[in-house]
Amino acid sequence: MIQCEVVRIIAHLDMDAFFAAIEERDHPELRGLPLVVGADPAQGKGRGVVSTANYAARQYGIHSALPISLAWRFSEKARHQGQPGAVFLGVNYRRYREVSERIMALLRRHASLVEEASIDEAYFDLSPAGSFDRAAAICRKIKQEIKDQEQITGSIGLGPNKLVAKIASDFQKPDGLTIVTPEEAERFLEPLAVRKIPGIGPKAEARLAREGIRFVRDLKKFSAAELQLRFGKWGPELYERLRGRHEAPLREEYEPKSVGEQETFGVDTLDLQLLFDRLLYMCRHVRERLLADGFKACRTVVVTVRFADFDTRSRSQTLPAATGSLDRLQFFAMKLFMPFLDRRENPRRKLIRLIGVRLEKLEK
């Protein structure tokens, strides 16, 4: 009996400028204007970052994670050149989550296996379609249904695995559909910058660039053993990724690996009352999010501090037993925070710019 091998077909949906797109939809008067969602720019003195920028704002050089003060300067430069200044809006996570839930429900009407990767992206398995042509037709239908239902757009990458699908979804943004078959995967990756391969961050990219290695095709010249010497035990896996091979399975349920938040102060400070108040408030708010996401407890507490000179440090503690008690979380957070106020972590008495609390190893 001849057995036909099942073709693996994985799709990755990445919504286009998701937060900004929802704001434009809900505020028609903003359509066509450069829009930035994130921290308050405070006339260029703001101290947070950009969460999302629409495509008009990106033409000014504004992008996610850019300091909000720099986004403001880019906007002002454009305005002085006769272009419209950017509109800055705060983040409305509740509304974005509601839209995300409807989109994920829509995906599940077309695919039995959906992995929510984040609030605005998901993988879904279209292998049952049997061919890339039929899977592409399903993707076009999904894109149209999202437009009809939510009046916003998303881009989809279709490939033989999660790695290729994710890279492909970013290939023709916005509102794109990029199809990469198993036969095309290796050739598709070759001309891309090495940074496109998940796992290669900015430091590795800079180190490779100094050696003249800028594209995937350059890095492919090295054997698995040579990559292991450069990247450690991750080298052999990188060797496979460079060739478009990646067998990671889809996970049906998206569960956050951690829950946390940070706060950047308007003025660098060592005001103990202010720091303690904000740290305890953050613990309370993060615990509320933990419970809202269906979790009961965590095993690890992490506290992060960024000093005025942007030196950023974290301390963590894995608890002897999981806890969801607010008193316990606040106790351990305060215990982790105290060294940043004395010679243990702050011998020069540097002012503090940002603090953050994160809960990890979540349990239901």
- Quickly name the level 1 CATH class of the largest domain: Alpha Beta
| Order of strands in the sheet with most strands | 5-6-1-7-8
Assign the structural class, choosing from mainly alpha, mainly beta, alpha/beta, alpha+beta, or little secondary structure: alpha+beta
Write out the CATH superfamily name of the largest domain: Reverse transcriptase/Diguanylate cyclase domain
In whole angstroms, how far apart are the ends?
47 Å
Number of helices: 13
Rg of Cα set: 23 Å
Major sheet summary line: 5 strands, mixed
Number of domains: 3
CATH architecture of the largest domain: 2-Layer Sandwich
Structure summary, number of beta strands:
12
In short:
By secondary structure, the chain is of the alpha+beta class. It is 37% helix and 23% strand. Strands 5-6-1-7-8 form a five-stranded mixed beta sheet. Strands 9-12-10-11 form a four-stranded antiparallel beta sheet, covered by helices on one side.
Characterise the protein shown here.
The chain is of the alpha+beta class and 364 residues long. The strands form three sheets. The protein has a five-stranded mixed beta sheet with strand order 5-6-1-7-8. It has a four-stranded antiparallel beta sheet with strand order 9-12-10-11, with helices on one face. Strands 3-2-4 form a three-stranded mixed beta sheet. Helix content is 37%, strand content 23%. It folds into three domains: 168 residues, Alpha-Beta Plaits; 53 residues, 5' to 3' exonuclease, C-terminal subdomain (DNA polymerase, domain 1); 106 residues, DNA polymerase, Y-family, little finger domain (Dna Ligase, domain 1, 2-Layer Sandwich). The model has no long low-confidence stretch (mean pLDDT 92). It contains 13 helices and twelve strands.
